[in-house]
What we know:
- The chain is α+β, with helices and mostly antiparallel strands.
- The chain has helices at residues 85-96, 98-111, 145-151, 166-173, 185-188, 198-203, 210-213, 228-236, 283-294, 306-322, and strands at 20-24, 31-35, 47-52, 55-63, 81-82, 117-123, 129-135, 158-163, 244-247, 250-258, 263-268, 271-276, 281-282.
Amino acid sequence: MQAPIEETVTPAAPRDGQKIVGVRFMPVGKVYHFDGTHLRDLRSGDWVIVSTTRGRQMGQVASMEPPKHGAADGPFKLIERMATNRDLAQKKYWENQEVAAMIVAREKAQHLRLACKIVKAEYTFDGARLGFLYSVEDNVEVNVEPLRAALQPEFNAKIDMRLIGPRDAAKIIGGGGACGLTERCCSTFLTDFSPISVKMAKEQGLSLNPQEITGMCGRLRCCLLYEYEQYVEARKQLPKRNKEVGTPHGNGKVIDVMPLKDAVLVLVGETMHEVKRDDLTPLAEVEALQKKAEEPCSGSHGCNCGAHRQSGKKKKKEHKDQHGNPPSTPQ
């Protein structure tokens, strides 16, 4: 879990000549943006020291581009300085102490009989702060203040207790995915979590069995979002189930929709056919157009069709004939 960056109230877009860079605090984590204008030699991959709400942190430059949504992220805090070799050595040392700190925290939590799980211990690069990331079961409130008080004398660092959700816990723990992948998507490339709903599974025709659509975190799988938009767009172009359509094999009824194939299964008589969208004829729409074409034009409601204009010319001609004017000669 990366430390959140301190926000400033007044938004402002990057100024001309301002160098805005993205900094990441963990390998697969969210990117925060800072002002690196004063660091001319700053490059992607460099380690830098920045100030956050959780103290001074070390992060790695992930991008040299400003945020896409621009002003929403400004104003941008200045990067304090480039990280030195000593800073990197400190960071490595304190990272090696995190497992031991986590074990101590778990023992203390068990002794206090707290219904929480210590997922990770996280030192700042200089060892000034030590954060314990913990998770709890749904709808369970746990007071971790006694645990924080018990841990403070054990370490020469300021103790922070941070509650994280089940998805964040699964991301940190890592391991295989529910689909069989050796590494979970959230631990490999997902930098942020998007809202997932059962509707996404329905739209893709997936089984709603919880065991098949639930990830290792106990929540709906993040991968339900990957192809959701493609399914939605494809279904807009295809007829729905039970609709009557025309095909090269004859008229039939749509039995199933296959969005990614841009086709549908049509029952013609007693035979099933897979028909591409370009070969389908919407019978209801065609019949409606034919019926409308066969009906005479009433000329009302501001009708501007050809039949109405022709009828108007005929009436005008008859009116002139009644007043003794000679009929117009065709051109």
